[in-house]
């Protein structure tokens, strides 16, 4: 039975059953595959026939994960990687060459910033940062050698948002590749391809897994673009392991119901903290006070599970709050069933200069709260006692 409903697609899409008629997909822990004869081996390596050649190229488990994500995101094809950063590196590596220019949102994950400033800059790729809250400035940064627009929305950790339809139109006008890191929203809350993005990237380590167990990433787009990604990835080797692909595919079965609870809890936390006297600022997409609230409501189903706050009192107050938490985990990860608190200035974004952090709204008092699936009363109680 075919369905257009997210939950049904996520649960019922799977590899063809074997002769054992298993109900749940098995794990294909094999590095290589047997060919029927020499001709089949030749045809597979010549891409004249579809099939598995080597698990660095494809595997039934990674194929199932990719098939599900394509259906959920509205993409034609995809490639699964070992980590989210491998997905970003592979995308940059597949499409950017010496002499190319990139326009990127200023508020990007710390490791993405490091790739742009310390890796691809050494390979002759230049870039300019633009602010998500200043869309009027983006077009002026486009040069004759600009090849790509890259953006996180919502951003990490500032929770800034940009109009994807605007970016889609801008990319089309200048014949640029629009790449969107959709990690915070997940395909359940947002589908960038629907608004004109050519490629959507996820760190599957986050909400796709959702339980802090495995690493993974995925690149989604048209068949033509993913063919270029595969051409680069087959030889650079960022492949996702079959076991992790199996975990991630199974995790997609509960993504919708998990995200509903993450979003419900996060909104209640954001509303509570917005009224707290010790909190200087609260950023959450579905708070009416968010600068891009109307855009968020247009392109996102719900606000996501991340709330970023700034406490009065700077780093000392931030440390006091985090050290006072009893149930929240202090971790650099996010999107877990368990609520997590992170101090970006001294962890995930510590390699940025203070000036660079200030430009994207990361203050010494900034704390990223990944709101988990615990009972909301316990989440609020832990925050309340830590602020006392």
UniProtKB/TrEMBL annotation:
SUPFAM superfamilies named in the record: PLP-dependent transferases
HAMAP family with a match to the protein in the record: MetZ (MF_02056)
UniProt pathway: Amino-acid biosynthesis; L-methionine biosynthesis via de novo pathway; L-homocysteine from O-succinyl-L-homoserine: step 1/1
Cofactor: pyridoxal 5'-phosphate
The protein's assembly and partners: Homotetramer.
Stored Pfam families: Cys_Met_Meta_PP
Family statement: Belongs to the trans-sulfuration enzymes family. MetZ subfamily.
Broad class of enzyme this protein falls into: transferase
InterPro entries associated with the record: Cys/Met-Metab_PyrdxlP-dep_enz (IPR000277), O-succ-hSer_sulfhydrylase (IPR006234), PyrdxlP-dep_Trfase (IPR015424), PyrdxlP-dep_Trfase_major (IPR015421), PyrdxlP-dep_Trfase_small (IPR015422)
Described function: Catalyzes the formation of L-homocysteine from O-succinyl-L-homoserine (OSHS) and hydrogen sulfide.
Catalytic activity: O-succinyl-L-homoserine + hydrogen sulfide = L-homocysteine + succinate
Enzyme Commission identifier(s): 2.5.1.-
TM helices/strands, residue ranges: none
Keywords carried by this UniProt record: Amino-acid biosynthesis, Methionine biosynthesis, Pyridoxal phosphate, Transferase
Protein name from the UniProt record: O-succinylhomoserine sulfhydrylase
Coiled coil: none
Residues bearing the modification N6-(pyridoxal phosphate)lysine: 206
Highest taxon above the source species: Bacteria
